[in-house]
Amino acid sequence: MELIIGLLSGAVGGNVAGGLLKNLNQGTLINSLSGIVGGGLGGTILSALGAGGVAEAAAGGGMDIASILGQVAGGGVGGGVVLAVVGMVRNAMGK
């Protein structure tokens, strides 16, 4: 369940980052795909770091509001970061 939350919030985070950073916007499809990849990575990194018990609660099946919010935050930030990297690489290749 936490993977699905991370992927969905990553897609949203990628599109939000694309909307805020117009020079890195790659269109809805690329923004969403980059966000999904980043959301998966962000959730995995969050689980590996054990961010304050959020990952343990999610792994133990205790999907409370804190673990859901942690997964949404990790996925959204991861999606935005991967979109920024993809946007910078594509912009550099275009020059």
Automatic annotation (TrEMBL):
Keywords: Membrane, Transmembrane, Transmembrane helix. The chain crosses the membrane at residues 68-89. It comes from the Bacteria. This is DNA methyltransferase. The lineage of its organism: Bacteria, Pseudomonadati, Pseudomonadota, Alphaproteobacteria, Rhodobacterales.
